[in-house]
Structure formats: structure tokens, C-alpha cells
Design a protein that fits this description.
92 residues; mainly beta; three-stranded antiparallel beta sheet; 6 strands; 0% helix
Length: 92
């Protein structure tokens, strides 16, 4: 993120291109991590599953200070080995 910030959430927007391929890569289950150095990630600050739709998803968690944010896709909604995103934002 370029500097350290107190981060208390993440916003994920799945791809928005429409058609039958738009579902490809939507994150199913996820984990969110915050790190001060980009090497040591510790335990996930949030875990869960996103709804299988094109709407924006917000994940909130207890604020943690860090410079690096990681959204890890544990699964893709159709079981495929890839992930896509239109936008990912850190929230404070």
C-alpha cells in the first residue's frame, strides 16, 4: 500500500464483463491477511465465503496496522484453478 495504515476491511468486486464467462474466477472461500513487511503474514484476519454473484463484497475485521494486504482465494465458485477480480480495495 506504499506505507503503513490501520486497515479494518477489504472490498472485492468480481469481474463485471457480463456473459457466461463473467462467473469464471469468482472467489468462493477466502482468507485475508495484513503484513508489515510482506514476508511474515501470520494468521488470517478474516475468513469466509463470498456469494456467487457480481455484487461488491465487503469484509470487515478488527483493525490491524500493516503495509501489505493479501486476499487469498481458497476456492473458486465453480472449482476452477484460477481467480479474477475487477477491483480490490483496502478499507479503514
Amino acid at each position: 500500500m506504499g506505507a503503513s495504515y490501520s486497515v479494518s476491511g477489504l472490498r472485492y468486486l468480481p469481474r463485471q464483463d457480463g456473459g457466461s464467462g463473467a462467473v469464471n474466477g469468482r472467489i468462493g472461500q477466502y482468507e485475508v491477511y495484513v503484513s508489515t513487511d510482506g514476508t511474515n503474514w501470520g494468521t488470517a484476519v478474516a475468513t469466509g465465503a463470498f456469494a456467487n454473484d457480481a455484487s461488491q463484497k465487503d469484509v470487515r475485521y478488527a483493525a490491524k496496522t500493516g503495509q501489505h494486504l493479501r486476499l487469498r482465494a481458497v476456492s473458486e465458485v465453480a472449482g476452477n484453478p484460477w481467480t479474477s477480480a475487477a477491483e480490490i480495495y483496502a478499507l479503514n
